C-alpha cells in the first residue's frame, strides 16, 4: 500500500484521464469521484477502475465526447439522455438540476438513461445536505444478481444512496448495494484466493457457493445462470425477497422513469452504455426550520452511538461515519492505493510521459 | 380457519370498533384496513389487532376523538400532528394530502407525528398508482430491533412501502419491514411453539437465539437488551449494517421530518401514541407519458416472471402479486380468520349484542 497526497493524486488522475480520451471538465469530475472513493476506503470505486474505463472507451461503451440532452422537463423534474457519455459528468449535472429545481420549488427529480458507471452513489446524494436538502441517488448496473426463486442474472447490484442533513456530522449517508455485497467484493475475494461466506452468491445450478474464483469466471462467461444474492440472501427465510424488492424498486425508478434500459439489457444494446440513474433533492424547509430538523437527526444518531454495545464491540457507527474518518486520515497522510492500482498508475506515467506523484511515506 | 364474506366482515368490524370507542368515520377506515390485511393473507395486521386497540384506548395511547392538525404547510408538503389519534384515519388523510398536492404541483410529501399503528404500510402507498403517481409510505414503530454492534432495542421494524404503477398488474407493491421479519412473525412462532431460524433475533446477551417463546417474553420485559435483527442479520458479513441503515433512514424521514419521536421513545412519553410516519406521491408525468412508463414497468415485471426458475421452483413472483392473488380468493370465498381471532369476534358479539356474520363455508 502506498499513500499519495490528495491534491497530487487528483491532478495526476485528471491528466491520465485526459490522455485516455476524456475532455478536460469530464476528466476533472471523474478524477475527483475516483480519488474520493480511494480516500474513503472504497477502492472498488476508485482509481483501479481507470483501466476498465479505457477499455470501455475503446469498445464504444463510453463516449467521452457525448453531450447530455434534456429530453423532458417540468418545474420539478427532468429526464436526461446521457448518450453513453461519462457517468460522473452526467450524475453531477443531474444532481445539480435536482438542487436547482429544489431551490426554486422545494423538490427536484431527475431520471437518466443511456449513462455509464457513475462511481460511488453517495457522492451525488451528498451534494444535497450542504444546501439543506435530503439527497437521493440510485443506479442500475450490469446484471449480476438473481431474483428470489430465479436462476438467471437479471438485476444489477442497484445501489441506493440517501444523504440526510445532520448537525455537526454533516449528514447521515447511507450508500448501499441492494445485493448482500457490492460486486467488487467478490472480485477482490477471487484475486486473493479467499472463500466467500455462504449467502453472497449461487452457482449456475442455483446452489450456494463459497468459491469466489469460480464465481468470478462465471460472471465473465456467456452463461446467464448463477449470480449474486440480493440483501437477505437466498429464499425468503431471512428476507431475500426484500432485497430483491429493493433492487427491483431501484430498477423501476431508474429505468422506467427514464424510458431507459433495465439491468438485464444494459450492455446488450450493441450501441453504448445504457445504464440508468435516478436522483432527487428534497428541501428541509418543506417540513420546518432546517436547523431544527438537522439537530433532531443529529440527536438520534448520537443516542444510537451512545447506546450499549454488544459483547466484544466498543463502538457503534452510523452510516457515512467510517468513510468520513478514513477520508480525514487520507487528507492528512495521503490517499491509499494498493500495489496493483499503483502499478497501473506507474504504467500510465510511462506511456504518457507524465510526472508521477510522490509517496507521502504515510502508513 | 373460518372464512367470512368480505362486506359482512367489514360491516361487523366497523360496529365492533364503534363499540370500543371509535367515531364512525374512523371505525370505517380502520375496519377497511384490518379486513384488507386479513383478505391479503397478512393476519398480523388484521382483525387480531382489535383486542390490543381496545387496550390502547383504555391506556390513553389511542385517542379516538383526537383531531389531526396541520402544523406546517407548503405547496408541496404538510406536517401533521395526529394528537395520538387513530393511525388509519391519520394515514389516509396524510396520503390524500400528498395526492392533492401532487395533482396541483407534481409531487406531495407529508410527515406525521404523534400518530399510532396505521396497519399495512402498503395500503397507503397503493392509493397513488390509480392516480398515476408513485406512492411511498413509511412508519416507525415500538422499538423491537438492535443496531449493528449494539445490544439495546432502539429501532422499530420500520417498514417501507413503495407502489409503482405497472400496466395490467396495477402496480408493483413493495411492503417490507426493514427487520429480517415483521414483529408479528416472532409472536406467531411463540404462540405455535416453533423454533425461529437463526438470524431473526438475538437474546439479551447479544447471542443468536432460536427460542421464540423466550424472545416473546423478552419483548414484554423491562430489559432494554436483545431484540430483532435488521435485514441482513447480525454483524456485517451478510449486510446487517444495510438493514440497520434502511431502518435508520425510515426513522429520519418519519421522526426528524415531522419534529416527532423516534422509535426508542415512542411509547415512553407518558402522553399518548407518538408514532411518526412519512408519505409521498410523485406524479408519473414528471417523467413522461404515464401510460408509457407504466407499460415499461409492466414489461420489466413480465420479463422477470418469465425468466428461468431455480431448481424446485415453478414460479417467480413480483412484489404485491401474492397478496393480490390471496385477496381475489378472499373476495370469492370469504376472508380467512384464524380460530383465535374468530373467538375474539364472537366475544365482541356477545358483549355488544351484535349479529355475528356467517361463515361462507369456504376453505
Structural notes for this entry:
Two copies of one chain form a homodimer. The first copy, chain A, folds into three domains: 4-22 and 24-59 and 321-352, Orthogonal Bundle (Hypothetical Oxidoreductase Yiak, Chain: A, domain 1), CATH 1.10.1530.10; 63-177 and 239-286, Ribosomal Protein S8, Chain: A, domain 1 (2-Layer Sandwich); 181-228, Wheat Germ Agglutinin (Isolectin 2), domain 1 (2-Layer Sandwich), CATH 3.30.60.50. The first copy, chain A, is 39% helix and 16% strand. Chain A has helices at residues 6-19, 24-39, 50-59, 87-105, 121-125, 183-191, 212-220, 240-255, 290-306, 321-333, 339-352; strands at residues 2-4, 69-73, 77-81, 107-115, 133-139, 160-166, 170-176, 201-202, 227-228, 275-283, 335-337. A seven-stranded mixed sheet of chain A has the order 2-3-4-10-5-6-7. Chain A has a two-stranded antiparallel ribbon with strand order 1-11. The termini of chain A are close together. At the A-B interface, strand 4, strand 6, strand 7, helix 8 and helix 9 of A face strand 4, strand 6, strand 7, helix 8 and helix 9 of B.
Distance between the termini of chain A: 8 Å
The CATH class name of the largest domain in chain A reads Alpha Beta
Main β-sheet description of chain A: 7 strands, mixed
Q: What is the CATH homologous superfamily assignment of the largest domain in chain A?
A: Malate/L-lactate/L-sulpholactate dehydrogenase, NADPH binding domain
The oligomeric state is homodimer
**Most residues in contact, chain pair and counts:** A-B, 84 and 84 residues
- The best one-word shape of chain A is globular
CATH topology of the largest domain in chain A: Ribosomal Protein S8, Chain: A, domain 1
Into how many domains do the coordinates of chain A divide?
Answer: 3
Side-by-side strand order of the widest sheet of chain A: 2-3-4-10-5-6-7
Mean pLDDT of chain A: 96
Helix count from the secondary structure assignment of chain A: 11
Strand content of chain A: 15-25%
Amino acid at each position: 500500500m502506498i499513500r499519495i497526497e490528495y491534491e497530487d493524486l487528483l491532478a495526476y488522475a485528471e491528466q491520465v484521464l485526459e490522455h485516455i480520451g476524456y475532455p478536460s471538465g469530464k476528466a476533472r469530475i471523474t478524477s475527483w469521484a475516483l480519488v474520493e472513493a480511494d480516500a474513503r476506503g472504497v477502492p472498488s470505486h476508485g482509481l483501479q477502475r481507470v483501466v476498465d474505463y479505457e477499455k470501455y472507451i475503446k469498445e464504444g461503451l463510453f463516449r467521452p465526447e457525448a453531450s447530455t440532452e434534456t429530453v423532458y422537463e417540468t418545474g420539478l423534474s427532468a429526464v436526461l439522455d446521457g448518450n453513453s457519455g461519462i457517468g460522473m459528468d452526467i450524475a453531477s449535472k443531474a444532481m445539480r438540476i435536482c438542487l436547482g429545481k429544489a431551490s426554486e420549488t422545494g423538490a427536484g427529480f431527475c431520471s437518466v438513461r443511456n449513462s455509464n458507471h457513475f462511481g460511488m452513489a453517495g457522492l451525488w446524494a451528498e451534494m444535497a445536505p450542504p444546501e439543506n436538502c435530503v439527497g437521493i441517488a440510485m443506479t442500475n448496473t450490469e446484471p449480476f444478481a438473481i431474483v428470489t426463486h430465479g436462476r438467471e442474472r437479471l438485476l444489477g447490484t442497484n445501489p441506493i444512496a440517501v444523504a440526510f442533513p445532520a448537525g455537526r456530522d454533516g449528514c447521515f449517508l447511507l450508500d448501499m448495494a441492494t445485493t448482500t455485497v457490492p460486486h467488487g467484493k467478490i472480485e477482490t475475494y477471487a484475486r486473493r484466493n479467499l472463500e466467500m461466506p455462504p449467502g453472497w452468491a449461487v452457482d449456475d445450478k442455483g446452489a450456494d457457493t463459497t468459491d469466489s474464483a469460480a464465481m468470478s469466471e462465471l460472471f465473465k462467461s456467456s452463461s446467464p445462470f448463477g449470480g449474486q444474492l440480493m440483501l437477505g440472501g437466498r429464499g425468503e427465510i431471512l428476507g431475500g425477497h426484500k432485497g430483491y424488492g429493493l433492487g427491483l424498486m431501484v430498477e423501476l425508478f431508474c429505468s422506467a422513469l427514464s424510458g431507459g434500459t433495465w439491468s438485464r439489457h444494459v450492455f446488450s444494446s450493441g450501441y453504448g452504455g445504457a445504464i440508468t440513474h435516478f436522483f432527487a433533492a428534497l428541501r428541509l424547509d418543506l417540513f420546518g426550520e432546517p436547523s431544527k430538523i438537522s439537530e433532531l437527526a443529529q440527536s438520534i444518531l448520537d443516542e444510537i452511538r451512545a447506546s450499549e454495545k454488544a459483547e466484544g464491540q466498543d463502538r457503534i457507527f452510523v452510516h457515512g461515519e467510517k468513510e468520513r474518518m478514513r477520508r480525514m486520515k487520507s487528507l492528512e497522510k495521503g490517499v491509499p492505493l494498493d500495489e496493483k492500482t499503483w502499478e497501473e498508475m506507474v504504467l500510465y506515467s510511462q506511456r504518457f510521459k507524465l510526472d508521477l506523484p510522490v509517496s507521502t511515506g504515510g502508513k
